[in-house]
Specification:
Strand content: 15-25%
Number of helices: 3
Number of domains: 2
Order of helices and strands: HHEHEEEEE
Strand order of the largest sheet: 5-1-2-3-4-6
Distance between the termini: 22 Å
Largest sheet: 6 strands, mixed
Number of strands: 6
Helix content: 10-25%
Radius of gyration: 19 Å
Structural class: alpha+beta
Length: 158
Amino acid sequence: MEDIRVSPKIIRQLIEPILVKSVRDKKFIADAIVNMIGSTNLPFFLDIINREDYRAVSKFCYVRFTPSKYVFDVRDVDIDTMKELGLMDSQNRLFGQVMNHDSFQTDFDPYYYKMRVNIYHHDEDKKITTTEISVDTSTLEVIDYLPFKNVVEQTIEL
C-alpha cells in the first residue's frame, strides 16, 4: 500500500458517519480514533471500513494475496510450475498461512498492518515448501482451505 497524505478533516468526514447517533461529540470521538490508530495503521483502517466483505485474519488461517514483485527475488521458482502445483491461482495470487503479526507485541493483533505469512512455493525438486515473509495485512484475503494438498518438506526462514 502506498503512502497517501490525507488531511485530518477528510479522515474525520470518513469516520464520523460510522459512529452511532447517540454519540454526542462525533468530532472528538473521530479525532480520538485517528490518534489511537496512528499513522501506520490508519490507511488499513480506512480501507477495511470501506470494504463490504472484509474478513479479519486470525492466527494460522489460510490466505491468498497478490505478491509484491520482490517476493521471488531470493528463490528460484517457476511460475508455470507454481500454477501446475496449485500454489498460485490464475490471477497470480499466492497461498499462505498467517503465523503471527509482524510486531513485537505478545498478543496476536488481527488488525496490525503487517503479518508474518508462510507462503507456499516449490523447491528445486518441485516439492512444496514454505517461506515466512512479511505481508501487508490489507492485501490478505482469508480463505477456508488450500486448493492443494498441504505437504510441506521444509520451512525456509528469511
